[in-house]
Every structure is written in structure tokens, then in C-alpha cells.
Fold:
Amino acid sequence: MGEVTNFNDHQVMTARRELRHEVRYPPFDQVAADGILDALRQGMTLATVKSLASTPRWGTVRVWMETVPEFAQAYRDAMRDQAEYFLNRGDGVASDVDREPSCRKVELDWIRDRIKWAAPDVYGRNSEGPTQTVNVAIQNNVTMDPAEAYQALLKGNG
Structure:
């Protein structure tokens, strides 16, 4: 017969803790990681990505970023790609003269914030709150080219 090992409480608690960690934070999965990175590049948020089937929880992704340096770098690169995605989307919104200026302004403000959040090292982000408070009176006449207006929004002059 096999040996019987008596475990003390500390050994049992340690084993349980290790098992819980393995269940909560599965080991790195390159296929899942690639799916997450591709979705981020296409403008999806991590909250949206994790609602998809077979995507790990946010905590697991954070553990992967802390323990797999290549994934952490790929994640940062995907976020910069996401910022570029939103820059291109903003160009389309800014040049859509058929839309109400107020609607364009709201969407461009949202896009600007997404860009700053996705790539703060490139476009800057103020972690204290909004980058600035701007009082804007929306009128139906636009005195600048939509592309110029978009660039002004990105610079925070809008």
C-alpha cells in the first residue's frame, strides 16, 4: 500500500491557495492572447472583448501582462494601434459634413478621449480628470474645415 502523508494546516492552506490561483488565473494561452490583441486593434475595449466566448477574465489578462513580458509589449502595441484606428475613424467623422456639427463634436470628443486613453505615451493623458474644460456654443455654421476642426479637438482647442 502507498504511504499515508499527514499534512498540517499550513500545508493544506498553501495547497488550496495555489489551486485557487491556478483556477482564477489560467496559464498564458497564446491563442486567447492573439484574439484579445486583434480585437483591441479593431477598437474594441477589453470589457467588450472579455464578454466574448473563451476570453479570460480581466484579472487573468493582468496576470499575463505582469508575468509574460512579450504579451505586455504586444498589449501596449495593440493599444497604440487602437489609437490609430480611432484617429482614422475621427477623420471620417470630421469630414462628414452631412451630420449635425453638435453630433460630430460629441463623437469627436469621445474619440479624442479614447485616443488619449489608448496611447497616453503618444497622445498624453491627464490622470487627474478631464484634460481641460471647454465651453462651446454649437452653431449650425462651421467656420473651419472639418479636418481642421478635428485637429483642433485633438490639440484640446475645441
Remarks:
- Confidence is low (pLDDT under 50) at residues 127-142.
